[in-house]
Amino acid sequence: MKSNYDKKPFIQASGGDCWTGWEAITRIIGEQGGRVVVLETYPGVNDDEVVPQLKGFLPGRFFFTKDAFLPEQQISELVYPDVTDDDIFGYITRLSMVDFFDPVRLGKMREAIGSEAGPVYIYGPGATLVAERWDLLVYFDMPRWEGQLRFRRNEVANLGLTDKTAKASLQYKQAFFVDWRVADKHKKPLLSRWDFVVDTTVAGHPKIVAGTALNEAYGLIVRRPFRLVPFFDPGPWGGQWMKEVCDLDRSQSNYAWCFDCVPEENSLLIRFGDILFETPAINLVFAQSRALLGDAVQARFGDEFPIRFDFLDTMGGGNLSLQVHPTTEYIREHFGMDYTQDESYYILDAEDDAVVYLGLNDGVVPGEMVSALSAAQEGGKGGDGVGGPGERGDGQGDRAGGLGFDAEKFVGKWPIKKHDHVLIPAGTVHCSGRNSMVLEISATPYIFTFKLWDWGRMGLDGKPRPINIGHGQRVIDWSLGPERTKKELINVVSAVDEGPGWREERTGLHEREFIETRRHWFTGKVMHHTGGSVNVLNLVEGREAVVESPSGAFEPFIVHYAETFVVPEAVGEYTIRPVEEGARCATMKAFVRKNP
Question: Is residue 294 within 8 Å of 569, Cβ to Cβ?
Fold first, then answer.
């Protein structure tokens, strides 16, 4: 059956004009601007594209915030305590944008701006800090995912730096722990003040919209269901399922991940008239956190979206890395995060031989397991990472130059099938095996994975991926044997309620996790209520369903198989039914549990 998965979902704005092209953008800036125009930019905006266009169309003197920044060596020293020497992990920074400025340089730039008759254009991160007062604020925004792609293409550098050729993974790490945190802290108070916002996500196709129109659109979005723009990425263990179901490029070797509800990195597409404007989804969280999340959830998490949905595709691929996530106390102490990466695997699809590695076997001695992991890691590098030599998918994973880690000696191996739900509280050793399609439902801190063993394979760059046995051994729940694993973590399903044409089940999560999940099987209409928390759902069975408001508060919203969608808390009551009358469908819904 032909795929109906929508890769470019959008929300229709109720009003507001949008313009495309540099000539139109600079005309608007020129007409609306006064003596001082600030042109704020988010990390990832490509100055090499934007600046020549602005200078080519706008008469006046340009000042660049980078010229008032600290020297690069001092910036590197400034961020080092948060960036650290670790290949993957750092510490959530407490720096602010003003910390990147050299006070002397900043003072001189302000004096020079004050002496100009105008028009004056101040461009770059922190432009509003340089100007202090301005006549027009234009914000050049950038979704994090596109920023990551630009790191990979050597198009942009980290905040305050100029080296675009640095290793992309290290650029990403610095952005995650420092740049994006600093830029978001600076952006939040500007959302209510920006006059225009420019979308430069697609090179050569910029778009501009009035800030009031964009903010009105954010207010509209949190009164209805919506989807984020999914993105897909290959991996050393990636599979083939998403190519067919999500209609992806068949010429790619594999797709490992789909991130379809990670607002920190995903985009929103908003259509103004007939123009699609792309905006970082995190802006919605900043601008409408209470209506989106719910009052109690916002009080608990602030302007962070606490639930993440994504796909892990190993169909025809290989095992994920054997891994463990930090406990709450560990992630807080070592990385500065307030809550940890509890998660679960909902099995969307599986072959007959699909398994999950979960928990420990009886009698495991911690020191023995750690020694075996360390010996395997020192045993050499090898394998192609896609199910060939070095990744047999059977838990052994021979390594060139040495014997691999015997996972089945230490780690539980459990068969799984379609619609199973596996719970993975922090501290649980786990990974999905090959030939499964996982809907991962988890808390949002999404990079804090301690890899213990990678099955003797290389990453897509031909180099070993970092292993984190040192961190991992300190957080493993060594008491989690087979009896507890089976009882507490695998298909802990209980009936909740039922009615004509529908049945509701509780499928988790674990008592240590703050997310609750409910599965609804239905052939008719099901009534839902957000119940004080943002709801995140995925249509895990059935070709398509329609989400409706009993009071007609929003237009009917169609979702297709495997699509994740968000229902803001402000929506309240909503219903879901099959588009085709009598068709069998199922949704998985996640929300934040109420405090006891």
Answer: yes
Cα separation, 127 vs 50, in Å, equals: 15
Q: What is the CA radius of gyration of the chain?
A: 25
Helix (H, G, I), strand (E, B), or coil: what is residue 537? strand
- Asked whether residue 276 carries a pLDDT value surpassing 80, the answer given is yes
- What per-residue confidence (pLDDT) applies to 381? 42
Name the CA dihedral angle for 76, 77, 79, 82, rounded to a multiple of 10 degrees. 130
Is residue 387's pLDDT more than 60? no
pLDDT for residue 473: 96
- How far, in Å, are 134, 263, 489, 566 from residue 509 at the CA level? 50, 21, 8, 19
Q: How far apart are CA 452 and CA 373, in angstroms?
A: 7
Interatomic CA distance for residues 296 and 301, integer angstroms:
9
In this structure, are residues 311 and 7 in contact, taking their beta carbons and an 8 Å threshold?
no
Q: Does the N-terminal peptide bond of residue 460 adopt cis geometry, omega within 30 degrees of 0? A: no
pLDDT digits (tens, 9 = 90+) for 182-200: 999 999 999 999 999 999 9
| Domains by residue range for the chain, with CATH | 22-205 (3.40.50.300), 314-435+443-489 (2.60.120.10), 494-592 (2.60.120.10)
- Cα gap 473→326, rounded to integer Å: 10
pLDDT of residue 403: 62
DSSP structure class, residue 464: P
State the DSSP H helix or E strand holding residue 61, giving kind and residue range, or none if neither.
strand 61-64
The pLDDT-based confidence of 394 (bands split at 50, 70, 90) is very low
Angle, alpha carbons 370-376-382 (nearest 5°) = 150
